[in-house]
Specification:
Layout (H helix, E strand, L loop, with lengths): L1 H25 L9 H27 L6 H4 L12 H10 L4 H15 L6 H20 L10 H25 L10 H27 L7 H26 L7 H4 L23 H19 L6 H12 L1 H13 L8 H21 L7 H4 L7 H4 L1
Helix pairs in contact: 1-2, 1-7, 1-8, 1-14, 2-7, 5-6, 5-7, 6-7, 7-8, 8-9, 8-14, 11-12, 11-14
């Protein structure tokens, strides 16, 4: 239970930090401002709590326990921003600040539509409502950057993929009494592709923060070398996880290296790797390599000293970023600054979730872990 709750909280934090990155883009004209209370208490904390609730719901599903209403209603925490008197007044008088309520309602509607319970007509109605809101966030940023341009399409797809992921996650408490959460391989591949796309789009938001005014969004640079690899990696690792529940993972040795697809950009110009400023090439290799090491450290198999060494190397990303953030992105990205603390939370949560996903091909099949004579069974549970 503790592990699932922790993983859920981490995924929720990454989701909320990525959503905050999208908010930066749609507020670019006026300039997005960061405050400890507004960003962390009203965005990141609810995201982590909702993710933890979904992790608990998944534990209850695996344990065969009935669903509980308070876990089903966990997305309501996103509407806590309206508890702020200033935001509530703006919402009543000017209609500003309703985004938090819209996110909560979309998650609830989408989760029920995917629950497989209740009257079919009501589930379809909720599905249409959730789908319309997903399309709405797709076009919300088109005033600044048209959807026909790479910047506008990235911003729109970033938001819609995050909201669609929320709808999928909100179905977990609704399906508490189901023995199987994801019934088919193609479902798992589709969900993994969506998660990988949302992850890569959030990574692109972090890259924008680092590059600042020099950041440019292009069809090849963003969609071909960032979003496409993220989507493919997510689909492959999700298929590996689905396979792991039925037996050994096919092509495990190849899938272990799937995160390195991000290094495909070096095919365009291998000299990117030699850029003395650190360049896109070095980052395209170092980031997935760190996550491959982190995945092996979390795998639960292999030589303990090797896993420990990999874990130390992976964990070094925390102090390294603290020491170099200001040099890389300027004073605003210094960790003691609210904007810098958010960027650090986004960066670290993205790395951690990627490392967890990269551990999937290493892990033993679920049937083997559940065997009563296996000494790892208790730890796995």
């Amino acid at each position: 239970m503790k592990r699932l709750v922790l993983v859920g909280a981490l995924a929720g934090l990454a989701w909320a930090a990525g959503l905050r990155g999208w908010m930066v883009q749609i507020a670019a004209a006026e300039g997005s401002t960061f405050h400890w209370y507004g960003t962390f208490a009203l965005v990141l904390l609810p995201g982590a709590l909702v993710g933890a609730a979904f992790g608990l719901a998944e534990h209850r599903r695996r344990a065969g326990l009935p669903r509980t209403g308070w876990l089903v209603l966990a997305p309501v925490l996103f509407a806590c921003a309206l508890l702020d008197p200033v935001i509530f007044e703006l919402f009543i008088t000017q209609g500003i600040g309703g985004g938090a309520l819209g996110v909560a309602l979309t998650g609830l509607a989408g989760g029920y539509a995917l629950s497989g319970r209740g009257r079919a007509w009501w589930r379809r109605t909720c599905g249409v409502f959730a789908g319309l809101l997903v399309l709405l966030v797709l076009v919300m940023g088109s005033d600044l950057h048209p959807l026909g341009e790479p910047h506008g399409l990235w911003v729109g797809l970033h938001a819609s993929s995050l909201v669609a992921l929320l709808c999928l996650a909100c179905a977990i408490p609704q399906r508490a009494d189901r023995p199987v959460l994801v019934p088919a391989a193609w479902h798992a591949v589709g969900i993994g592709a969506l998660a990988g796309f949302a992850w890569a789009a959030s990574l692109r938001a972090f890259m924008t923060e680092v590059a600042g005014a020099d950041s440019t969004v292009s069809w090849s640079g963003t969609f071909v070398w960032v979003l496409l690899p993220g989507t493919v990696i997510g689909a492959l690792l999700a298929w590996a996880e689905w396979s792991r529940w039925g037996g050994p993972v096919p092509y495990r040795r190849w899938l272990v290296w799937s995160p390195m697809l991000f290094a495909a950009i070096l095919l365009t110009d291998p000299l990117f790797f030699l850029d003395p400023t650190g360049g896109v090439g070095l980052a395209a290799v170092a980031m997935p390599a760190m996550c491959v090491l982190g995945g092996y450290a979390l795998a639960g198999r292999g030589a303990p000293w090797v896993r420990t060494l990999c874990g130390v190397v992976f964990a070094s990303s925390i102090p390294v970023w603290v020491l170099t953030a200001e040099d890389v992105g300027g004073p605003a990205l210094a960790v003691p600054h609210p904007r810098g603390a958010w960027a650090a939370a986004l960066y670290w949560s993205l790395l951690a979730t990627f490392a967890l996903a990269a551990a999937i091909p290493h892990r033993r099949p679920e049937a083997e872990l559940a065997a009563p004579d296996n000494p790892l069974a208790v730890a796995a549970r």
